[in-house]
Amino acid sequence: MIKIGVLGGAGRMGQMIAREILAKQHAHANLHAAVEHNKSWAIGKDVGGILGIDPCGTCVTTSKHDAFKSCDVLIDFTTADALIEHAQLAHEHGRALVVGTTGLGEPEMAALKVASQKAPVLQAANMSLGVNILLSMVEKAAAMLDQEYDIEIFEAHHRHKIDAPSGTALALAESAAKGRGVSLDAALVPARYGQIGARPPGAIGVSVFRGGDVVGDHTVTFAGTGERIEFLHKASDRSLFAKGAVRAAMWLGGKPPGFYSMRDVLGI
Ligand code: NAD
């Protein structure tokens, strides 16, 4: 039985992950902890009660050390600000950490890399099978198509999303840059407004829509002269990501320290 702790357990994704673990409770997984920050409305509440199902005996706490000590795997769907502390705790306790939180910059990625020296760490901006296949296809297409094909990425998300562009859009841009053999830092054009001039050759553009309840759409276009190739992924249900996160946690438990991706879990 793998003991799983959810960091951000009362959040939108945290609740979905808890629901997914509780549904699997009979089969090798156990919701051992749900952790929140110390001002959360959910502290002390039974997770089952929060989900509107039978009490499960696991209440939301703020005890991060206890969760890292007692769980086999922690799943983090919080914020980039919170992640560094969680990476340090994974390092200190040698506990497996699955990170779905997006909006990560260099300090957060560096903290995860340090943690991965002592603990298995899996980070994925998108836990769905479809997007991970898309990442691989975009890398291959970018390797086959030269700079005559302009790469543009478009993403759309619900009105509550706090980071932009989405972690998935950036991961797609990274795959495109990797396929093309260029640095993303040099190629990325994240926003356009006003007299921006002609498109620089080799740019990888990313544009963003925010509104309504869009779960997550991503389109990667290779725009050549006389033709366009488009790769499109639409997520229609957020439980997709929760299922992927729990699958990743079950896979990661017991692995040696190291840095893993969703592609490792899915074998693609
Ligand atoms: P949310 O705001 O609903 O939930 C975040 C939760 O984290 C909240 O309950 C909040 O109280 C808690 N939290 C904040 N700071 C904390 C701290 N210091 N310690 C403990 N808990 C803390 O957000 P959400 O929609 O659930 O998304 C969470 C993250 O997951 C975002 O970064 C989002 O982009 C990402 N996400 C990733 C995927 C994926 O497949 N990788 C899919 C969907 C969302």
Keyword list:
268 residues; alpha/beta; Rossmann fold; Dihydrodipicolinate Reductase, domain 2; 7-stranded parallel β-sheet; 5-stranded mixed β-sheet; 12 strands; elongated; binds nicotinamide-adenine-dinucleotide
Structure in a nutshell:
The chain has 268 residues and is of the alpha/beta class. The protein contains ten helices and twelve strands.
Structural write-up:
This protein has 268 residues and is α/β, with parallel strands linked by helices. The chain is built from 10 helices and 12 strands. 38% of the residues lie in helices and 24% in strands. The strands form 2 sheets. The protein has a 7-stranded parallel beta sheet, sandwiched between helices. It has a 5-stranded mixed beta sheet with strand order 8-9-7-10-11. Helix 3 packs across helix 4 (80-93) and helix 6 runs parallel beside helix 7. The two termini are 27 Å apart. It binds nicotinamide-adenine-dinucleotide. Nicotinamide-adenine-dinucleotide binds at residues 7-8, 10-14, 35-37, 40, 77-79, 82, 100-103, 124-127, 241.
